[in-house]
Amino acid sequence: MGNTSNNVGSDVTPVTVAELPGLNTFGISMARIDFAPMGINPPHTHPRATEILTVIEGTILVGFVTSNPENRLITKVLEKGDVFVFPEGLIHFQKNHGNGYAIALGALSSQNPGVITIANVVFGSNPDIAADILAKAFQIDINVVYQIQSKF
């Protein structure tokens, strides 16, 4: 089990060409996601890969958001053995929906799928995105932006 004692309650162990050079030219990679109770794999995207997720243990709520202009949320609760597909480039997430620990395996259609975790990128960039830009984009008070940025 990965170390899930962090702010989001999950641990992702990737196996891409960076960790396993033998994947070079095969166009595949994997990831193991361990979830503490109520843990999440925060909203993120893989810009170069479709992902197929298989639940190995537990119950996991999964979802993704379709592209503009619909921005439709698609969700499903998965049980052990269930499979779900996240289309390439779309923002998606997982949440442990049960009371115990959960485990999932993600297979990706690229040896280097990339991962962009939305909150980290938007509020944790280096240097920071200007707070006035984020305040206007999210329609929130600028002090809320500063508070969120301080957590990253």
Automatic annotation (TrEMBL):
Any Pfam family: Cupin_1
Entry keyword Transcription: no
Top-level taxon in the UniProt lineage: Eukaryota
Residues bound to Mn(2+): 44, 46, 51, 92
The Cupin type-1 domain, residue ranges: 1-146
Alphabetical keyword list: Apoplast, Disulfide bond, Manganese, Metal-binding, Secreted
Transmembrane segments: none
Record InterPro entries: Cupin_1, Germin, Germin_Mn-BS, RmlC-like_jellyroll, RmlC_Cupin_sf
One GO MF term attached to the UniProt entry: manganese ion binding
Family matches, as SMART domains: Cupin_1
Record's subcellular location: Secreted, Extracellular space, Apoplast
Binding site for oxalate: 41, 46, 51
GO cellular component terms attached to this protein's record: apoplast
Family assignment from sequence similarity: Belongs to the germin family.
Protein name: Germin-like protein
UniProt source species: Mikania micrantha
